[in-house]
Design goal:
Blueprint: H1 3-15, H2 25-45, H3 47-54, H4 58-75, H5 80-86, H6 88-95, H7 108-131, H8 135-161, H9 185-205, H10 215-227, H11 231-246, H12 250-270, H13 276-296, H14 299-308, H15 316-329, H16 340-343, H17 362-395, H18 399-418, H19 428-446
Helix pairs in contact: 1-2, 2-7, 4-7, 4-17, 5-6, 7-19, 8-9, 8-11, 8-18, 9-11, 9-12, 9-18, 9-19, 10-11, 10-13, 11-13, 12-18, 15-17, 17-18, 17-19, 18-19
Length: 456
């Protein structure tokens, strides 16, 4: 396929974080336009190659199609007898309006928006699988994900450090936390965490083959890991960590350090004939990022917020407890994708005074909106991909494959942690980048290993 398609894919990746994380109707409409346009072009021009190229990913694609079918069923008119059987509470709610047309979703408009968005994610996922078909493009993808996050880090921290009252993009008020071109600091922190996964994966990909080491070689390797030929990547990672800490996102910081630690230990255990450089890389991440850089840019404040936070100060625990009955009322098909903000006011108790359009727990929100069936399908996609990424870290021989697998695994683990107390997947930019890492986990398990020309 023509290289232009690959560059359009990269453009989409660079574009989606810029307009408020594409978390506005006009912004995600632009995103959908580009994605569907790219997908349609690939279908028309390369239709002979598509089915052959996707054959190795059939299992995941079928699961994803099943998920989209469930979301489609939510917005289709269904006989009242079927709705009353599978979702009695939805039937009762609609029956009070004396309607003659029944749906599984209690908010058809939002569910249709969510279905279109989910379909665009699926098309983007397919575009990634089709266009990232060699190691060189794999490295370019990682570099693009990383560079986009570095831009967000530089832009966000500059606004705060220069004392700007309003952002350079969209003229939004600048608070005491770094948010870049995002509005919500936790979405920004999650995005930076994904960028860090790409950056550390690039560092792993750039490690040299294993060879005998003495103490002098070890010291030289340690210095090179910090200040050598790959210093630009290392400095950029430090900038990302600074931005992450300055976001003042508690779980964003926790998700990053836990994911990095978990995947670092996994890499040390699984990677055969690992280099001393890998051990040095993991150590340097802790030494430089945690104990030196972060100490000067507010990690202490994040730790203070973590220790001082109590259930009495937070209302999210009440939101969770008040939301649980919704699952029992809509267990199979859910209340409809995107319907949480419509249905939650009918369940919240007097202790919750704020308006919540999301559950601040993506697992809970998925169970409520999508039901058990769709949530299990979604979990299968993520966990099967994580499994493939871990196996690729163990089995693939080329450093770029191991680096890509490490990035995918770290992004997945970090996202799974952050989803416990927030809603990062509700931001289109975060969701699209997460999907990129899911595709990455499959790609490194599937594509042929063709060496990348070495660069000085």
């Amino acid at each position: 396929m023509h290289p232009a398609f690959f560059y359009i894919l990269l453009f989409i990746i660079v574009w989606v974080p810029l307009p408020l994380g594409s978390n506005r109707p006009w912004a995600w409409s632009v995103m959908e336009f580009f994605i569907f346009g790219l997908g349609a072009s690939l279908l028309v021009i390369g239709r002979e190659q598509i089915w052959h190229s996707l054959a190795g990913y059939k299992q995941i694609l079928l699961i994803w199609l099943a998920l989209l079918i469930v979301l489609t069923v939510q917005v289709l008119p269904v006989p009242g007898s079927i709705v009353s059987l599978l979702s009695p509470h939805a039937y009762e709610l609609q029956n009070t309006t004396q309607t003659t047309t029944y749906y599984f979703s209690i908010d058809i408009g939002q569910s249709r928006i969510a279905l279109l968005k989910s379909t665009s994610y699926f098309v983007f996922f397919i575009c990634l699988l089709l266009l990232i078909h060699n190691t060189q493009r794999l490295k370019v993808l990682l570099t693009t994900l990383f560079a986009s996050a570095v831009f967000q880090a530089l832009y966000g921290t500059s606004e705060l450090l220069f004392g700007l009252d309003y952002s350079l993009i969209f003229n939004l008020k600048v608070g005491d936390a770094v948010t870049g071109s995002f509005v919500y600091k936790n979405h920004y922190a999650n995005f930076i965490m994904l960028g860090l996964a790409a950056g550390i994966g690039l560092m792993v990909a750039n490690l040299q083959e294993s060879k005998p080491y003495n103490s002098r070689d070890f010291l030289r390797s340690f210095v090179n890991a910090l200040l050598g030929n790959k210093a630009l990547i290392r400095i950029s990672i430090a900038i990302l960590v600074i931005a992450l800490v300055m976001s003042k996102s508690r779980m964003g910081n926790v998700a990053f350090f836990v994911a990095m630690t978990t995947c670092g230990i996994l890499a040390l255990i699984l990677i055969k004939n690992r280099t001393k450089g890998l051990t040095i890389l993991i150590i340097s991440m802790f030494v430089i990022d945690l104990f030196i850089v972060s100490a000067y840019f507010g990690l202490g404040k994040v730790q203070e917020r973590l220790t001082q936070t109590s259930l009495a100060q937070e209302s999210r625990d009440e939101v969770v407890s008040d939301s649980l009955p919704i699952i029992t009322d809509f267990p199979v098909i859910g209340s409809g994708a995107g319907s949480y903000y419509s249905i939650f006011p009918g369940y919240k108790q007097a202790e919750v005074h704020s308006f919540y359009d999301h559950a601040h727990n993506d697992y809970l929100q998925s169970l409520i909106e999508n039901g058990v069936v769709a949530t299990l399908l979604l979990a299968s996609i993520v966990l099967l991909t994580l499994r493939k990424a871990i196996f690729a870290m163990r089995d693939r021989k080329m450093s770029i494959m191991k680096g890509g697998a490490f990035s995918s695994a770290m992004a997945i683990v970090g996202m799974l942690i952050h989803m416990l107390v927030d809603f990062p997947t509700q931001s289109p930019a975060n969701a699209l980048y997460f999907i990129s890492f899911l595709a990455l986990g499959l790609i490194v398990s599937h594509i042929r290993a063709i060496p990348i020309p070495k660069q000085d």
